[in-house]
Amino acid sequence: MSDLEAVPEDWSSALVVVAHPDDMEYGGAGAIARWTAQGKKIAYVLACRGEAGIDTMEPEVCGPLRVEEQIASCAAVGVTEVEFLDHPDGVIEYGVPLRRDFAAAIRRHRPEVVITGNFRDTWPGGGLNMADHIAVGRATVDAVRDAGNRWIFRDLGLEPWNGVKYVLAASSPLSTHAVDITDSFEASVESLRAHKAYLEALSGDMANPEPFLKSMAEAVGQRFGGGLATSFELLRL
Question: Which residues form a coiled coil (predicted)?
Answer without folding.
Answer: none
